[in-house]
Amino acid sequence: MTCAPLLNTSCRHDECKIESSHCIERKCQCKPGYSAVSTNQCVKTSSLYSCTDISHSADSWHFDCSKEKKCVCKANNSAINNLSCLPVLGGICWKDDQCVTQNPICVDFRCRCKSGFILVSHNMCESIECRY
Q1: Biggest alpha carbon distance in the chain?
Q2: Using one digit for the tens of pLDDT, what is the confidence trace for 64-110?
Q3: Is the pTM of this model over 0.70?
Q4: Taking every annotated instance into account, which residue ranges of this chain make up the domain EGF-like (predicted)?
């Protein structure tokens, strides 16, 4: 089993496996145009599409309409392909496949870590085996 690398951890060359990250100055960091939303996820920094109020945002469970009239992800949600927001750990869900964390499960309408996995950051479930 390979345990997941984290952002801001040491690296050499091309060891960073987190999507949209690479090794800069010997640390795994998000590529230009992306921001870290947790220790294991980089998301595009540009805003989502325009709205005039929340009713124009595609999914009011996961979006809000900002003062700048852009659909933005609510807390515990992450932008996906700059078009939608999906729940991370603690986010509202009704199906397991909505949760964008690795090794998630939807329990009582919230994204949680699957059995045999533990929370190691706001958006990362790691195998218990990696901790020992």
Answers
A1: 50
A2: 877 777 777 888 888 776 667 888 889 999 998 889 888 899 999 99
A3: no
A4: 2-43, 84-126
